[in-house]
Amino acid sequence: MALSNEIKEFIKKDVLERFLKYVQIYTTSDEESESTPSTKRQFELANLLKKELEELGLKDVEVDEYCYVYATLPASEGYDGPAISFCAHLDTSPDVSGENVKPIIHKDYDGGNILFPDDPELVLTPEESPELKEFVGDDIITASGKTLLGADDKAGIAEIMSGLAALVRFKELKHPELKICFTPDEEIGRGVDKITLSKLGKYCYTFDGGMIGELEAECFDAHYAKIKFIGSNVHPGYAKNKMVNAASIAARFIAALPEYETPEHTENREGFFHLLKISGDVSETEIQFIIRDFDKEVNQRRIKLLKDLVEYFKTKYPGLSIDFQEKEQYKNMYEVLKNHKEVLDIAEKAMIEAGIKVEHKAIRGGTDGARLCFMGVPTPNIFAGGLNFHSKKEWVACTALLKATETFLNLCKLWYGNK
Question: What is the dihedral of CA 419, 358, 184, 150, to 10 degrees?
Fold first, then answer.
């Protein structure tokens, strides 16, 4: 049964109001912090969501000490299948300021350039974001030009919350038992570090993707490396055969990596080395990389290249010490999801019933779901609608918010009928 016009009108208004409210709450995470959550400010949104979930009448609503929000919506009468979870993350990327976000609605988008009132030099064009062409006549939401918007992932939160509000309001909408979870610190790779698995369902969906129609069951195999070069500083006037310049050696190390295997030269299923940070001086310099590929074996070859270069540079520069640290961040979730076809089939059907053309896409990144898959909870990722994430030109169309919420409701209906 298709959603009625009354339900569609309700969620259209409700999801927009929630989204505009949530993005104005400052929740940027901090990769330098060792606490969970990495920033206490994430509790502001968490506590607001707790209040709203309680007002909707959900059960077992809580915000735990680590800023995870949990809630349960009991199943509609007659359901005896597995509990299903929906997940989105509270934090926004530290790449661009998320403080004092001022959302702007550009009404009836005409297909041209979009300007930002707080930065006249900033322009969003259809040439750099061709997806805009699909939303001519729609309302487009951006920030004002000084910050990111926060659609990653407050669009996902708004869509889940609006879907829950519709389930509570319109009793004819059937659903399984729902286990809701909103996580902190996803943007810095720690979104499920402190999660309580017993509070999740058997299967889960994250609403954390981009363009309408994206259904993602595959992601990068992901690793992180930190390399510290320890040299020896001497007055430059008397440095011959004495100075070991850690900064210049680190620069040569970076230059020794294949330039064509960097984010700015790769796309689709191509992997890369990505230099995140370089800091230090003559005495000590540290560089940080993330290493990504869809093929685990190819990624291991990249890590071996880094290790081989470390040994080569130790030999080449007597007196130089190098500390090399490497860790796995997450695995390609397809290794798990390929064995749970039903979870993907139901998601695809939910989108089709919402009038959406499904695009199966490999994520050039990761989500909480990637790690949840390997923790025993198969979790594909569904579009939330935003684009140009982590930038001042981030945007989302109002239709995308609506269609993601419709997809949520269709998922609930299909799982209920799949009991």
Answer: -140
- pLDDT of res. 366: 81
User: Closest Cα partner for 218 from 296, 333, 328?
Assistant: 333
Residues 167, 117 share a domain: yes
Domain count, the chain: 2
Last residue of a domain, one of 330, 356, 374: 330
In 3-state terms, what secondary structure has residue 46? helix
Residue 1, pLDDT score:
65
Instruction: Retrieve residue 263's tokens.
Output: 């984010």
CA distance linking residue 419 with residue 406, whole number of Å: 20
pLDDT of res. 54: 98
Cβ atoms of 306 and 324 closer than 8 Å:
yes
* Sign for the pseudo-dihedral over CA of 341, 209, 84, 7: negative
For 192-262, strand residue ranges (E) read: 203-209, 214-219, 221-230
**pTM for the predicted model, two decimal places:** 0.91
Instruction: Note the pLDDT of residue 419.
Output: 59
Helix, strand or coil for residue 133? helix
In single-letter form, the type of residue at position 101 comes to: V
CATH at residue 41: 3.40.630.10
> What local confidence, expressed as pLDDT, does residue 407 receive?
98
**Structure tokens belonging to residue 80:** 């005896």
- Please choose, from the candidates 324, 323, 308, 399, the residue with its C-alpha nearest in 3D space to the C-alpha of residue 354: 399
DSSP-derived secondary structure for 331-348: --THHHHTT-HHHHHHHH
Q: In this structure, are 122 and 24 located in the same domain?
A: yes
Which positions are annotated as active-site residues? Answer: 91, 186
- Which residues of the chain register pLDDT less than 70? 1, 419
Phi, psi (degrees; rounded to nearest 5) at 94:
-75, 0
Give me the pLDDT at residue 416, please.
96
The continuous run of DSSP H or E covering 9 comes out as helix 5-22
